[in-house]
Amino acid sequence: MTKLNSFKRLTDSSVTKFALFLIFAFVPFVFAENDVQLFIFWGINILLAQSINLLSGFAGQISLGHAAFYAIGAYTSAVLMTKFGLSLVVTVLLAALLNALVGYLLSFPAGRVKEFYLAMMTLGFGFIIQEVAKEWSSVTGGVMGLSGIPSPQLGTFTFLGIPTGLAYYYWIVLVIVACFLWMFKNFVQSYLGRSFLAVHRSELSAASIGISPKYIKQLAYTLSALMAGVAGALYAHLMGYIGSNSFGMMQSIEILVMGILGGFGTIIGPILGAGFLTFIPNKLQFIQEYQLMIYALLLVLSFLIIPQGFAGLFKLRTSLFKTFKSKQKSWESSSSIVTKREISDIEVNSTDHPLLSTSGVIKDFSGLRALNGISIELFRGEILGLIGPNGSGKSTLVNLISGIYSVTDGEIYFENQKITNEQSHLIANRGIIRTFQDPHNVDNMTVRENLLLGNHRLYRSGILSCTFNLKRSLDEEQKMLEKIDRILGLSELTEYADEQVGNLPYGIQRIVEVARAILAEPKILLLDEPAAGLSETELKLLIRLVRFVKNKGVPVVLIDHHMEFVASLVDRVVVLDSGGEIYSGDMRGMKQNKQVIEAYLGVAKHA
Amino acid sequence: MSSLQFALELIFTGLCVGAVYSLIAHGFNITFWTTKVVNFGHGPFIMFCSMIVLSFLMKGLPWIVSIPIGFAIIVIIGLILERVSVRPLLKYPTSMGWIVSTLGVGLFLQALASKIWGAQALAFPPFIFEATDYVSIFGIRLSAQYLLVLVMALVIMMLMEMVMNKTIWGKAMKAVAHDPNFARVMGIKSKIVITLSFMISAFLAGVAGILIAPIYGTITPEFGMNIMVLGFVAAVLGGIGSSKGALFGGLLLGVIEKLVGGYISTSAEHGVAFLILIIILALKPDGFFGVKVVQKV
Predict the structure, then answer these.
(1) How does pLDDT run across A125-146, given as a tens digit for each residue?
(2) Average model confidence (pLDDT) for chain A?
(3) Secondary structure of chain B in the HEC alphabet?
């Protein structure tokens, strides 16, 4: 463990990275021209692999037509340089921008579909772009391709007016790749990077903590296309010639293999994958002959044998938050501050007006009426129990309030504003936070990272600020990490903080989800069967967490079948049966209510 | 030739090519029913079967022998695909595993075909009729070869429909499609039905390959992937999982393609189809006859 930690510290330190950069800078002095060219290819492939990693590995949007972006970048840069004589700095920039635009536009149709629909769509997109490259011969040179592009290999390339040989070109590529990797790491370790993985895991649960899946996908397509565009531009100038055959389906597949083989969702993985596919086929002749077959077999087998790629094999995980050197304050001291604030909160908030109300809400599922005119009101600082037999409509009501289902009829108001049928991430951003019947954490993220997701809606820094590690975003991240530490202590999760949630016991996973919801600083908390499957100690912990929320003056809606648990917390209950309300009032009255006993609690002689 | 005649001929050829797209779409549907899996190696299956048949024909074997051999091989490959790329990967929550893996099997076949038969285009002989044979109806010359393809595709689809609705295997398949766990409780061997669905799907790919190859005239190792996406467009157009939709979507796509080819440019034919795919997925992903899936929480 300590060995692993020290290794991790070593690879994470900026000194190591700078040393690596210097070592790579010496490549042209040590290796022959052919090998330098291979290193340049590695650099280009790293950009491509990270591009698909961002889109498929992080945001979970599969792409089988990634060569299309590569092609657009290559042609744009080549045409701009040969026809207009622009400098590399300008052509790379324009190629990247044009690609970003194409990616942004593609995100609209692509963002609406998932899984194999998306896979087929991207496959088709790849075919379209290749067809265009083939047919639009006045610009792209058609099947003959585009030759005469200034190239360092032919000695026709100049950079900022200086004739540039292969070695200089290598350094240009090295600097560009290093910059991109630095920005990529910063981005991935920010709240935006984490939200990519949240959308990957489940758009539904991402939206429930205020992440807009649509926006995240737009961002993923735009940034991914941008990176592939830079790679394309660098490729065009390296080769001096581009033809439509270089950007066919096999190129798309190669990009995909680099990402999968290296390990999606990490930073080091695609670098290794790109290196593997750059050097191995070139150094081993027999592989070249069977290259396609070997790629195909890698596709078939990699998911079966090494589902997490090289990165998984060597246990190299990229952490998704930024670590800070300064030691954080212990949570005890800060929690006392919280308590003080809670008390004042209650005083300010106590009013007679309901915070949330539904009026006559009806929900039909193609002929089946799941909810029949439910009107409830929720006041500040109270815990409302929502109980009833399975299928009575409890979860449906929560799904309507949180915007997952659309309301058939009736209205929902929050803070005197109508929120009926609003998109669920907008509702979450208003402060209505929910949990699910089965925990919707991101399994391959650690507890700490999952809790940071809860904070998502509180982050204010922009994309650039995150990508360039500006002070504003670093300060914000540090502040959030302190909040996490506090809640970690409160929910007794500190010992699990850096373990992946998927590996933890079920009960802990539930607690993590509740803690995540609390970190979103809800104005209303909706808990859908939080106690199911919890042990006695975990149950006590849950009760403590719910009380913590209540003490802050935040109302809670609690669905559960565990009667003792419900009784120990709620101020008021609403009982549903077959989509209708049959009782509303306190627990004691409910236990004596005939209708409730018949529908739900059961009669003594049956028990 | 009058312009009306020209248009009618385009529509006719569109229907014939479209019938093959329908067959491909049916192939997608069958595995989609049982496992919600769409075989991304379907295209190379189409290519591989026609390549095998062609290579036996060139060895001097008659059609009647070559075709069954081609079918047998492709059905076995379908079985292998299900065992290697689908069954072990269905347990993962994301679809990326089986998409990538079935695609890998397809690409392997494609690479294998280039190794065995070379990457260049091979001439595929006309089937039963000569390429120049034609039937004349109302003054429109209909190629006999095309007509044969249309009729055979329709007959096979009708047979499939009968098998699915009348036989016990078809009913078992529908039961598995509806709820695999419940089907197992009722004594249906879900796993066998699933395997069978992949074999039938591969068989349909083989049929599509043998029907489309004489129309194209030449075949290359790459033609499968392209036509697979067209078949998928047909399936999506009609709504994935719907037999009626597959038939309708295929015919519609074929006609649109040929009209675009005739009036605008033949090189735009496939491009238009891919464009339709992107548009239909963006606007109406469940197609014309598809069933809207209710999101489960």
Answers:
(1) 898 888 888 888 888 877 788 8
(2) 84
(3) CCHHHHHHHHHHHHHHHHHHHHHHHHHHHHHHHHHCCCCCCHHHHHHHHHHHHHHHHHCCCCHHHHHHHHHHHHHHHHHHHHHHHHHHHCCCCCCHHHHHHHHHHHHHHHHHHHHHHCCCCEECCCCCCCCCCEEEECCEEEEHHHHHHHHHHHHHHHHHHHHHHHCHHHHHHHHHHHCHHHHHHCCCCHHHHHHHHHHHHHHHHHHHHHHHHHHHCEECCCHHHHHHHHHHHHHHHHCCCCHHHHHHHHHHHHHHHHHHHHHCCHHHHHHHHHHHHHHHHHHCCCCCCCCCCCCCC
Domain ranges of chain B: 22-221
pLDDT in tens, chain B (297 residues): 578 888 888 888 888 889 889 989 989 988 888 888 889 999 999 999 999 999 998 888 888 888 899 999 999 999 999 988 888 888 777 788 888 889 999 999 998 998 888 888 888 887 777 767 777 777 777 777 788 888 888 888 888 888 878 888 788 877 777 777 777 777 777 788 888 889 999 999 999 898 888 888 888 888 888 889 889 888 888 888 888 888 888 999 999 988 888 888 777 777 788 888 888 877 877 777 766 554 444
- A121 with B281: Cβ contact below 8 A: yes
A398/A8 Cα distance (integer angstroms): 43
CA of A108: which chain B residue's CA is closest? B282
Core vs surface per residue A274-294: b (16+ CB within 10 A) or e: bbbbbeebeeeeeeeeebbbb
CA-based nearest residue to A457, from A191, A220, A199, A187: A191
Residue A4 pLDDT: 55
CB pair distance less than 8 Å for A117 and B236: yes
- Above 80 in pLDDT, residue A5? no
Of A399-413, A433-447, B269-283, the least confident: B269-283
One CATH from 1.10.1060, 1.10.3470, 3.40.50, 3.30.70 for A2-313: 1.10.3470
CB contact under 8 A, B229 and A123: yes
Write out chain A residues lying below 8 Å of B282, CB-based: 108-109, 112-113
Where exactly does CATH 3.40.50.300 map onto chain A?
350-601
Q: Which of A115, A116, A121 sits opposite B278 (nearest CB)?
A: A121
Contact A121 B277 (CB under 8 A): yes
**Interface-testing mutation among A299, A305, A398, A400, with chain B (most B C-beta atoms within 10 A):** A299
Nearest CB to B271; choose among A113, A131, A296: A131
At a CB cut-off of 8 Å and minimum separation 6, what does A169 contact? A40, A152, A157, A159, A237, A238
State in Å, rounded, how far the first CA of chain B is from the last one: 60
Are B285 and A115 in contact (CB < 8 Å)? no
Token couple for A143: 């099947």
Quote the pTM value. 0.87
* Nearest chain A alpha carbon to B226: A127
**CATH 3.40.190.10 is the classification of domain A350-601:** no
The pLDDT of residue A589 is above 90: no
> Is A108 within 8 Å of B282 when comparing Cβ atoms?
yes
The DSSP secondary structure of A357-369, one letter per residue, reads EEEEEEEEETTEE
Answer yes or no: do B278 and A125 touch at CB < 8 A: yes
pLDDT band at A331 (very low <50, low <70, confident <90, very high): very low
